[in-house]
Amino acid sequence: MRHREESRRILDASTANRIARNATRARLIGHDHFGPTVDVLPCIWIGSRVYFYVEGRSQLGRSTLGSSVVLEFDAENPDRATVSTVVVHGIARVVLDARGDVLEQALPRPHSKEPPMHRLIEVSPTSISGVELTCPDRRAQPMPNDEAAEVPDAVVLGSESITVDIPTSAGPRVFPVTTAAIGGVVRAVMIAEYGPIGGVSPDGRVLATAVLDRWPGARVFERRSTGDRGADPRGYESFYVELDSSGRRSDAELEAVSALFR
Q1: Residues 44 and 107: beta-carbon distance below 8 Å
Q2: What is the pLDDT of residue 121?
Q3: Do 246 and 256 meet the contact criterion of CB atoms below 8 Å apart?
Q4: Are 46 and 102 in contact (CB under 8 A)?
Q5: In this structure, what DSSP letter does residue 110 have?
Q6: Exposed/middle/buried for 194, CB within 10 Å: 0-12, 13-18, 19+?
Q7: Which 3 state secondary structure label does DSSP give 215?
Q8: Closest residue by Cα to residue 61 from 39, 82, 77
Q9: CA distance readout (Å), 200 to 35, 191, 195
Q10: Contact 228, 258 (CB under 8 A)
């Protein structure tokens, strides 16, 4: 039995809305041809809707119909020793009118290496909920004068992918990953969750090897799903595991994962 000193509470609607609207980055959970995807994206709220860009060749960027998506927003309060996560379910649509030109001034369009260009996406929320985790050992402590200048480098999140050869599959599989880098060095990698659409979970050794061959020394995590819907973005419950170099999986603490990918 793991000893925990943190407490968890459900955020009220007003607080969850405030945290989501104050965020400038979001985790977009969706699907492509290979299964579930998790992308970290700059975003902006205008009125009751949130906007961000996706690659023009992506399934979401090419669709002319509304798509069900999930966005996640994080916030940390060192003074209160809390870490909060807000989940927004909504309907995403490509912005095709003149609003795109206006919004580009507030949310610059990413550079596209080749056509089609990135597409502006608008999400109309259908539900917003969140949880707050209180961790007493994370409460801000005053630093001695000789340590005050030793502020750690900021964590830079990125969206990448790994290609894995699975013996039981017809060909190589591509898994989207989120990287967390400090000082230009990737310290941790999160592999997107997969459920019925993504297929059976691959052998841990295969996944760990694919990640460590590309980012030696990085910690390797998986985001996994429970329940009948697996990684279906319309409703799931997720948890985290960490893979060692041999591929052995072990439980990962939410607080530790949040600290690495914040």
Answers
A1: yes
A2: 86
A3: no
A4: no
A5: P
A6: buried
A7: coil
A8: 39
A9: 11, 14, 7
A10: no
**Residue 129 in tokens:** 């909920």
Sign of CA dihedral 83, 176, 109, 122: negative
Overall residue count recorded for the chain in this entry: 262
The tally of CA atoms less than 13 A away on the side-chain side of residue 107 is 21
Identify whether the C-beta of residue 103 lies closer than 8 Å to the C-beta of residue 44. yes
Per mean pLDDT, which range of 92-101, 133-142, 165-174 is the poorest? 133-142
CA distances to 79, 163, 191 from 234, in Å: 34, 26, 20
CA dist 25 and 31 (Å) reads: 19
Model pLDDT, residue 159: 75
* 164 touches 206 (CB < 8 A): yes
Cα separation values, 29 from 69, 92, 146, 240, Å: 6, 12, 42, 15
Q: What is the pLDDT of residue 36?
A: 60
pTM, full prediction = 0.51
State the Cα angle at 55 between 50 and 59, rounded to 5°: 90
Q: What is the mean pLDDT of residues 67-92?
A: 87
Looking only at Cα atoms, what is the longest distance across the chain? Answer: 60
Rounded to an integer, the average pLDDT of 35-53 is 82
